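Quick board copy: two proteins, each given as sequence then tokens.
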Amino acid sequence: MIKRDYILILILLVVILAISMAIISVSTPLNQTTVNNSLKDHEILANESIGSVEVIRNIGNPDGQKIAYVIGVHPLENDTHKTLLKILPNLTDLNCCYDIYMINVTKDVGYYGDGSSDDSPGRQNGQNLALKYVYPQIANGSYKFAIDVHSNIGAYPYKTFVFSPVKESLAGQYGHVIANSTQNISYYSPDSTTSGPYLIIPLNEKGIPAIYFEEYSFAPQSEKDVHMLELIHAIDNLDFS
């Protein structure tokens, strides 16, 4: 009896530890991810009660076309956000000049439960921060292209894909080029997106082609790394003339 109780307690401790690690993974701010400091100019754009917004500027070729990446709009998708932040600032021999806008939601972040979708208030907090602080920066920043990085729980026909919510757009054309030049990235346009009106759609209406990149949330990290490298290099070789 004592031995059985010991085993049950041990199992309970393991479960508690696993849950704690998952919470830490979700709540770790993007700005704590290691970046090669010699390759970046860092600026804090905003710091509010619901979260902060930062930017890493001038990654890659400072004389190249300017491209913006955005991460953190939906905070629970941060494994994919951290993948970009881990890889892009440490690459060399890039053709373009990249800025990474980081949204760090700190209020009502929420959690995934058994693969369920994200309906936390933190999702809206991230969208509000994107519209208030990131959109003006990109809209007035002489950018040729913008990419909003997200992830999904596998509810779509494709797990790793790019798309523009604006039909018949230049952004959509770029998205198809990216999909056609990569092995693991498809082009698929969902019927709707909650964050579209807060960043990607206004940017396209402003004349700046902007797309989404969607990665499968539960893919092994090694696959996320491969897919992110494919995305980065495909975008780096786009013709913006």
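And the next:
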Amino acid sequence: MINLDASTSSSATAIETRGLNIHYGNFRAVKDIDLVVEKQKITAIIGPSGCGKSTVLRTFNRMNDFIKIARVSGEVLFRGANLYDPAVDPVEVRRLIGMVFQKPNPFPKSIYDNVVWGAKINGFSGNEDELVESTLRQAALWDEVKDHLQKGALELSGGEQQRLCLARVLAVQPEIILMDEPCSALDPIATLKIEDLMRVLSKDYTIIIVTHNMQQAARASDRTAFFTMDDDRAGIMVEMDDTSQIFTNPKDKRTEDYITGRFG
């Protein structure tokens, strides 16, 4: 097996795709994606519904493996290794590249158990109390729940549940955090808390977020990739640049049309 911990890279690239194609059965959902994500930056992926944003995001930690008809070709490079090499352990990939989903999905357990569960199955043997406090602090949730750690996670508000799910990811010490529409089910106040939290976390983690919210992408990200569909309805990447450039002076008219609301 390839040891991803040993396959370190000193470059500024966190993860990269080369010629990435994703099929669902005979349908090509994503076509020839070449994308470079920089370390310790927030990268937003935007574009109309059905253009493959979430499909590409799930490719980064091999979540598409759970879809029987999904087939991936090309390369997804992380720490010098192709994540789709047969010698790569997908469980190790998901430890190093964590994911927060669109809808908060805490386990039906206590707040405390939600945080430690993933760490324990990944071999954590340290002080659990310290782990819970440190990760809940990272997720900006400690002050709200420190006196109620045995409370059921499902009793928390939607925004609190989403931050708990983030704490659960942080507890296994990933390098990259994937966020698939993490604020779409939240109110504006909870959304801003998540965005502020992303900014703080990006000092230590690489964050990739899929969002339909143009304002969120403009506010929260450092880099933005714009996806759309070709004539065969396969998702393609039109361009990627600094977020300020994408939103003020995009190179491609399709990008300009999308962000100004002319289509999509």
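Board note added afterward: The beta strands are 13-24, 27-38, 42-46, 70-78, 81-82, 97-100, 176-180, 206-210, 223-229, 235-242.
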